[in-house]
Design a protein that fits this description.
Bound molecules: pyridoxal-5'-phosphate
Order of helices and strands: HHHEHEHEHEHEEEEEHHHEEEHEHEHH
Shape: flat
Largest sheet: 8 strands, mixed
CATH class of the largest domain: Alpha Beta
CATH architecture of the largest domain: 3-Layer(aba) Sandwich
CATH topology of the largest domain: Aspartate Aminotransferase, domain 2
Number of helices: 14
CATH superfamily of the largest domain: Type I PLP-dependent aspartate aminotransferase-like (Major domain)
Number of strands: 14
Length: 433
């Protein structure tokens, strides 16, 4: 029996173990270069074990701390930790269907403006609910919605705009916001690929009525699986919490009872007066909560976010410097005006004389992972069979589907790794002619 069995001693051993067993080795030529991945040190592992030893498991003190820290970081009042970015999008969308929003609630058959060039679960909740996605084309080389097409896309059934900041590059928030205000539309910012991006010096995710994050390992910070929904609007925050927590009306945390002091004296629907408020449901909701173990990792990750953002930008700049010599072959990415993206990746659009498949194979054969812009043009995916939608002409969306790929810029790419990418890029001439 170990005689110094206390938590501090255990955690200090964990710290030592993590330093030794989880230290990141510098890149050497021949290593496989992922497009992204977890970047962490002993702090995440110590927090994770600390939470495991508490064995609270469901949302608890680390969740509270993570939600507070993330809200402060983004610059919003309310934040809810959920179990994925896809769940965050589901929660945010379903929030806008609440009867508590009266005439502004999204109903089946209503339209939601979005783009077809992106990740499927940005728009999946629209389709699953029975609303109609309206796909607007994008611009090149920003890869975000073409705002000049917005006025033609709107009808009297339009209720919301839902858009991601593509690969970290903010969409034109000024134009989209004023369009939403002019037509009384909700705006959801899918901020899953853009945590830390700035628009006029303000964090993306603080502009929409609601915004979402993903903390799946390739994203800007990770909790393994995980996501968040955030807002400044107290009513939307209350509805989102209800949607996340089984649809219930009560706002008590896990394990808490009678926070409001009125647990047994309310009148709800046609229930008997005084029916236990813990079991009153104002919505048909979900259980989208994450665990305190995930939040514990997130708390340590948030301490590193500013450093991560700096590295993503620096890696992007280094790749830009290399690829600017190939502008006859590729369209290079361009940040939105008045923005400072925290890039998720480095998109390259092959010009007509360049075969994307050949280029992608070249990088993969040189151990450098590549990625497509997710679903390409979602209207061409098998999941769209039988789905009703409207769209503008999607010429640029088709072009990114056929000609675009992207390389990683994540903070785990050290100077050696970035130099290796640059060396490989310089050898591209052998396949480009
Ligand atoms: C823009 C965007 N939204 C949503 C998601 C979904 O996040 P998750 O994988 O955590 O469900 C992703 C996933 O990468 C994404 O890129």
């Amino acid at each position: 029996m170990v005689n110094n069995l206390n938590k501090d001693n255990i955690l200090s051993l964990v710290r030592e173990y993590a330093r030794e067993k989880h230290c990141r080795e510098p890149f050497v030529g021949g290593d496989k270069l992922g497009y992204s991945g977890r970047v962490y040190d002993e702090e995440e592992i110590v927090n994770l074990v600390d939470s495991a030893l508490e064995f609270w498991l469901t949302s608890g003190r680390y969740t509270k701390e993570f939600e507070r820290k993330l809200a402060d970081y983004i610059g919003v009042k309310y934040c809810l930790f959920v179990n994925s970015g896809s769940s965050a999008n589901l929660c945010a969308f379903m929030t806008l269907t609440s009867p508590l929003l009266g005439d502004r609630a999204i109903r089946r058959g209503d339209e939601v403006i979005t783009v077809a060039a992106g990740f499927p679960t940005t728009i999946a909740p629209i389709v699953q609910f029975g609303a109609v996605p309206v796909f607007v084309d994008i611009t090149i080389p920003g890869y975000n919605i073409d705002c000049s097409l917005l006025e033609n896309a709107v009808t009297d059934r339009t209720k919301a705009v839902i858009l991601a900041h593509t690969l970290g590059n903010p969409f034109d928030l000024s134009r989209v916001k004023s369009f939403c205000e002019a037509h009384n539309l909700w705006l959801i910012e899918d901020n899953c690929d853009s945590l830390g991006s700035l628009y006029f010096g303000k964090k993306t995710g603080s502009f929409g009525d609601l915004a979402t994050s993903s903390f799946y390992p390739p994203h800007h910070i990770t909790t393994g699986e995980g996501g968040a929904v955030y807002t400044d609007n107290p009513l939307l925050a209350k509805i989102a919490k209800s949607m996340r927590d089984w649809g219930r009306d009560c706002v008590c945390e896990s394990g808490q009872d009678n926070l409001c002091g009125h647990r047994f004296d309310g009148q709800y629907g046609q229930l008997p007066k005084g029916y236990d408020h813990k079991y009153v449901y104002s919505h048909f909701g979900y259980n989208l909560k994450a665990t305190d173990l995930q939040a514990a990792v997130g708390v340590a990750q948030l301490d590193k976010i500013d450093d991560f953002t700096k590295k993503r930008r620096a890696n992007f700049d280094k790749l830009y410097n290399i690829f600017k010599d190939y502008e006859d072959k590729f369209v290079l990415p361009q940040p939105e005006k008045n923005s400072e993206p925290s890039w998720f990746g480095f998109p390259l659009l092959c010009k007509e004389n360049v075969d994307r498949e050949k280029v992608v194979r070249f990088y993969e054969e040189n151990n450098i992972q590549t990625r497509m812009l997710f679903a390409g043009n979602i209207t061409k995916q098998p999941c769209m069979k039988g789905v009703s939608y409207r769209s503008t002409e999607l010429k640029n969306t088709d072009l990114i589907m056929t000609n675009l790929f992207w390389l990683g810029v994540y903070p785990g790419l050290d100077d050696n790794a970035v130099s290796y990418i640059c060396d490989v890029a310089r050898k591209m001439n052998s396949i480009l002619n």
